[in-house]
Each structure stands twice: as C-alpha cells, then as structure tokens.
Transcriptional regulator, LacI family
Amino acid sequence: MFEPITIKDIAKALGLSTSTVSRALRGGYEISAETKKLVLEYAEKINYHPNPIALSLKERRSHSIGVVVCEVANNYFSQAINGIESIAYSRGYHVIITQTHESSEREVVNVQHLASRSVDGLLISLSSETQDLSHLKYLHEKGLPMVFFDRVTNDIDTHKVIANNYEGAFSATEHLIKAGFRRIGHLTSSPQLSISIERLEGYKAALAKYKIPFNPDYLQNCMHGGMIQEEVEVAVKRLITLPDRPDSVFVAGDRLSTGCLISLKKHGLKVPSDISMAGFTNSDYAELFSPALTTVRQPAFKIGQIATEMLIQLIESKYPVTEFETRMLDTELFIRESSEFDVSVEN
C-alpha cells in the first residue's frame, strides 16, 4: 500500500520536532536560516510534497470547483468546459464535472454530491426539467459560492454569464425573412428555460418588425432539448404536417439543430429545397453538414472562462459579496446553404 512521506518522517530523520519542520517548510521567520536550508534540502532530496487533503482540511478549502451541465458531448458545453478548465487549473483549482442529462432529479443528486465533496464553489447550467430551485437556494443561503452560466435563474442573486440569446434569435429569424421566407417555424427546448424564453422573444420580435403574425402552431417545444431524438421527430412531424406548412425553421439549440436535420431527412424533406433552416449550434462541423448549416454561434469558451473568473473571485473574497452582475456576450451569425431561398417553393 502506498504511504506518502509526512512531516513526521522528515522530523525523525533530521532529529527535529514536527512543528519545527512544518514552520521551516512554510518559511516561518522564527526558524533559523540554517535549519530552513537543512529541512528544504532534505525535503527536495526525498521528493516530499505536502498532502493536498491535509492542507484542504486545515484551510477548510478543497481547491476544487464543481460543474453542473446537461451533457459534456454537447458542442456548446464541451467548449465551455474547456474555458472553465483553462482558468481553473491556472489558478490552482481542480474541476469536477457532472452531467444532468436534462434531468432535474439528477441535477439535485449531482449538486448534493458536489457539496458533500466540499467543493469551494459551483458553476451551474440548469437542466431543461428544473423548476424547483430549493436544492440550490439552500446551499446559496449557507454561503456556497455559485455562478450560473448559459441557463440561468433570476431567483438566486449571484453572478451570471450568458450569450445575447435575444439578438442571436432575432438575427437568425431576420435573415430568414430577408431571404424571402414568411412561414417560419420555431423548434426550441422546454419553455421555462431562460435560453428558450430569450430566443423566443428574439424570434417574435423579428416577425413583428416585418409585420408577420406569430403563429402558435409554428412553435414546438422539445422538453429534453434534443437529447431524445424521438421527441425531436414528433415536434418536426407536427410542423411539417400542418396544413400551411412552414417554409423554413429557426432552431434554438445545439442538439436540436442536428436532430432536426436528421428528422427532416427521415421524412423525405430536403434542406433547403423543401424547407430551409437556421439554428443555434456551436458544432465545428456545421460547414460539413449537407447542406452546410446556417448557425448562430455562441462564445462558449469565453463564457466558461468569465464564469470561472467570477466564481474564483467569490471564493477568494475576504468579505461577503453583495453586488452581482450578469455578463452578456454577443453571438455571431454564419450564413450558409441551409437557409437559401428556393424560388420553386410557393410562399
């Protein structure tokens, strides 16, 4: 069994007390230069490293950050996690990643597990099912630092980092309108999610600007954000079997965009000749899709970095933080083949 070298081992080897060795390793001013040199040289010789668990118990800190996301395989979240890790590790924090798979029950279990592991703080993007926030409110009230990113809530007063979802949705919908489309469907996630609300508002605002009435039948929600393909196929079928079928669709999620393309193909519809499409996705393969997909891209990596910086500020603050901010980053629209207008399509 592996047994790490301890301060006691050094003290015994050098004939010193453990407190003297401890002070020498910490650079205590009350220890003579000669003793410090002796202890440090011996520690280096035997490759001694302080026990991080013992240190965390002493400091009451674990130097770890808990991350709660719906799915690591989601392009947006994988990029955000890269951003989180780039800051956390450079600042001496480990990152523990958990996935909810869009389940509120799993989110509760994950958050409780991370809290029991004594993480110093939490970075959270809510699951599509989450409506009851009591598990987070309890920890927040107990003083556990937390920062929300992407999918946020107004019910807990702390830092938040989001993309400009309204503007991203507005620009994608306006692009479809300017391309000649008037019957624009909207495929989105669960209605209570902050990103769903903001993107729906942007979609509606673009329609209103061009005096196109909002048709409730054109709005389809997928409660699990595209993680269940059958759910996407049901929603897409509802759209394409409407008497006045949409001539295009604006998709408001990463998973939903690829799921929608798959579903349209299954139903024998070609993009963009039968129906055009624009969607939120951070997939690096959007250009390689057939056709290349018109996308709204979020600065996921930067969002992850900023959220982590904000969390570490909360963790390391010597005084209680009472003023919080919501940072909003711009999205970018990339226009490709999937949103082209086919003159043979009746409008």
